[in-house]
Amino acid sequence: MKQVILSRTLPVIYLIMLGLSKYAVVVATVLSIIAPTVARPTELHPGDASDLIINAQDTINGTISASASKTQGIHATNGTALKFTITNNIAGNVNCYINGQDPNKNNAPVMLTPNFLWYYPTASTNADGTPAPVTESVAIPLNAQGLTTTIMIPSYVVSARVWFAVGELQFFTVAGDNGSFSVVQPSQSNPADPSAGINWGFIEFSYTADGGIYANISYVDFVGLPLGMSLTDTSNGVQTALGLKADAVTNVCNDLAAQAVKDSLPWDALCQSINGTVMRVLSPNDYMAANKSSGFETYFDDYVNEVWDNYTSKPLVIDTQNNAGNVSCTVSGDTLQCPDDGINYSKPSTADIFGCNSGPFVTNPTDSSVHQATVPRLCAAFNRGTLLLPGGDVQPSLGADSYYTSGPSNFYSAIVHKYEVDGKGYAFAYDDVNPSGDGENASGTVSSANPSVLGVTVGGPSS
Question: Mind listing the UniProt keywords for this protein, alphabetically (predicted)?
Answer without folding.
Answer: Membrane, Transmembrane, Transmembrane helix
